[in-house]
Amino acid sequence: MVVSIARHLEGYLAVRFPFDQRVVDAIRIVPGRRWSAGDKAWLVPDRKEAGERLLQSLYDTGLFNLPDSRGSGSADSFDEKEINAFLSRLAVDGKVSSSTQNQALAALLFLYRQVLGVPVGELGQVIRAKKPIRLPVVMSRDEVRAVLAKLESDKYLAAKLMYGTGLRLMECLMLRVQDIDFERSEILVRNGKGAKDRVTMLPETLKEPLKEQLARVKGIHEKDLAEGWGAVPMPDALDRKYPNGATEWPWQYVFPQERRWTNAQTGRQGRHHMDESLMQRAVHTAVLKAGISKHVSCHTFRHSFATHLIESGYDIRTVQELLGHSDVKTTMIYTHVLNRGPSGVRSPVDGL
After folding, report:
1. What global pTM score does this model have?
2. What three-state secondary structure class fits 54?
3. Over the stretch 49-73, which tens digit does the pLDDT of each residue have?
4. What is the domain extent for residue 85?
5. Which residues are catalytic?
6. What is the full DSSP assignment across 280-305?
7. Would 125 be classed as within a structural domain?
8. d(Cα 13, Cα 43) in Å, to the nearest integer?
């Protein structure tokens, strides 16, 4: 059997194969997976953890035999020098980005170390793809208002929260009830990028909309409990430490998915957070409707948040802390707005 895994939409891998229930069951183990009828493929989050879980789950089915040879020798004949040459060729001939080259390296290392059981030694001097330095796409305040005006209900609130707090998309969607402190006007971001917790502000104008959202979510949660469900996935191993925590109100998601998920093996039902692709599509559609020609994504709200704070005179260290950057150099990219550059120069053609 051949399974095809290819990059699909932003943030997803498309998995296609001749129908086999055992393969379907293996894919369903991967968190965040979903079936796309239009693409006739399973979509799996394009993240390292999900990719490793997918490969391991497929291998555990026993349907896929590792090749004994590759024509020129055994499976381990693809040695460090050849891996080095392959990665260097990606950068020189393929002109791929640094992130694509790093992903290829991670996939090869996982294949050899975890699947084939072949140790990989020192790779030597790999020609690295140059990581480009790009200025972030930033919306003006009017453009932010125009995009938000085209969003509705919980997607409008989530987008406004990302712009108002600098949250990343997944940080926003993974917020739980207990992470919002209305009294202290704070939001606790758990397990952010780099597995770090941080605290950011809770805008005054978002307090009432968030309270209304939580009231709506509580009604959904109580209905789920009445029907015998009401559980959410717990982080790490907390489901063992707090056996009843998954059904308790503080652990519920602020932005839950509309329909409950069902565990194909146990039949248990629960509710995950809103799928990130729904938010991404909603923002993309809103940008088109607003007539904005910039390449705007959910992450653009975070860029706009930081840029507008610096424009308003807030110091770079404060912005660094709110964004959760370890190094102030990362935050410094937003100071491009302080250097007016070409926009501060009057062209001679304007004097004709």
Report:
1. 0.64
2. helix
3. 888 888 888 888 877 655 444 444 4
4. 71-132
5. 168, 193, 299, 302, 325, 334
6. HHHHHHHHHHHT--S---HHHHHHHH
7. yes
8. 5
